[in-house]
What we know:
Blueprint: E1 2-3, E2 14-16, H1 32-42, H2 65-74, H3 78-81, H4 85-106, E3 116-118, E4 122-125, E5 128-131, E6 137-139, E7 144-147, H5 151-157, H6 165-184, H7 200-218, E8 232-234, H8 237-249, H9 252-260, H10 273-286
Helix pairs in contact: 4-6, 6-7, 6-8, 7-10, 8-10
Amino acid sequence: MQFDDDADLDTSEVQDVRGSRIPGGKATVGGGIAGLIALLLGLFLGVGPDQLGLSSGSDEPAVTASSLAQVQQTCRTGQDANTKDDCRIVAVVNSVQTYWTQEFARRSGTYTRSPTVLFGSRVGTACGTATSAVGPFYCPGDRKVYLDLGFFDELRTKFGSSGGPFAQAYVVAHEYGHHVQDLMGTLGRSQDGVTGANSNSVRVELQADCYAGVWAHHATTTKNPSTGKPLMTSLTDADIRDGMDAAAAVGDDRIQERFQGRVTPETWTHGSAEQRQQWFHQGYSTGDMAQCNTFR
């Protein structure tokens, strides 16, 4: 996966609050067993930590000038994205949102851009205060994606993913898939409290995987209006394999087998490894969001 070295990055789409303090409120999920359980329940849930029993407060991080400047000063071009993890996230967010802006417009709709918040340790959201143990998530209350970059190490070391830059891109694109669902009114289907292989929760997650694949299909041809050129210049078969591997690594069956030694489909919330790969590939092979109807 490569970006145009000379392209300018739009850092306004990523809020960097790493190192900032959260005034008031306490996160109810920490490390150890409680944190692991929260991670297993919340991984890629696509909704905020309020559904995981986290604090219901809506404290926002105290964003300091120095924390904001970290990304703004170091992530200026595509060359930065090709060499630094946090800058790569900026580039992926830019690419994903440019695609969905154009796709919504093509369908006579309006896409509302959503920022990604990079945090460490814990973060305050409109969905409650969460720790990094929850994993990446999208909060519909403030329409933001939340991400601790340390998760990508855990994706490889704890969950057995092969890793790689596109594994990171898949995670980001999946969360923006939930934002697309939020804008279209389908995200709420996951909030009925029902679990299981055929539950709405699973169908919502698989659709977000499919939407991630749709973006990947168009990533190298989506032109930035300001430059007339695609931000992403190369996406290889090896990159897609890394994305598929990451999707499988966070399948409910893989997670349950790894951490509890048995598979219980009646408690699934995200779908099996095979399903997650299947729907990501469905989006990638067709490039058509209309082919992502997991509710049929």
